[in-house]
Amino acid sequence: MSQYIEITRIFDAPREVVYRAFTDPDQLAQWFGPVGCWVPRESVDVDPRVGGHLRFVMTAPDVTSPVDATFTEVAENELLVAAMEASGIPGVAGSIRVELRLEFHDEGDGKTRLELRQGPFATGQLGSDTRSGWESSFTKLDALL
Amino acid sequence: MADDRLSMIFGALADPTRRAILARLADGEATVTELTTPFSISMPAISRHLKVLERAGLIARSRSGQHLSSTLQPGPLQEATEWMERYRRFWDASFDRLDAHLRQAAPGKERQ
To answer: Which fold has domain B3-105?
Structure first.
């Protein structure tokens, strides 16, 4: 079993449009997070350069989870790699650190194939509190979906 | 599932030899000798890996005659996978919204 999540998804929009949906704070605030979970516009800050930050606050009823990611690789309209740190998760003393990799591929016909890879979900990140914290916030999300 | 157990499962899965052993056991039970051959490492080393896998609940070991056989226990693997699946669902649900957002942003675009 891999310690990474890998998702491939095709969007009916050109690469630069999909890339902008991730790097334009106004847009990110509109779509990020499952239904019942939201990202307040004023919490979003994106600076898509190596060393730049992607910051936002995941919000759900009784959940306020700041996410701070530092870009480690950036190629406009092609690639975003960031070291993510999420804290403020209910019941979590520390924070979760994973790498997020997003590749934007031209699929032809004005479409984009997005390849996401996130992880590793390793022992060190799975403190006893971490799991129950995520568990409870996901349970809340489950109820809302 | 106890939280420390989940940590043990991920710890056990972090090693490539142990993942290979699990893949081999997915084809059926095997003795230590049978496992030593394909991995070209010593029997004590295999035994140590098997002990880690057993502690994590990923395999069960039973003695038949002189042989100690290892069998894959799929339950814990499934639970660990389900835990990660929640992250996947988070993204899938977000991408459903992104899909709708992109369609809204380009209303003139028609599917062929």
So the answer is: Arc Repressor Mutant, subunit A (1.10.10)
| Domain containing residue A117 | 5-144
Q: How far apart are CA B77 and CA B6, in angstroms?
A: 9
Under an 8 A CB cutoff, do B94 and A34 touch?
yes
Contact B73, B50 (CB under 8 A): no
Contacts A30 to B, Cβ<8 Å:
97, 101
Residues lower than pLDDT 50 in chain A? 91-92, 123-145
pLDDT digit string, tens, across residues B96-105: 999 999 998 7
Taking CB atoms and an 8 Å limit, are A34 and B90 in contact across chains? yes
**Inter-chain contact B92–A7, Cβ cutoff 8 Å?**
yes
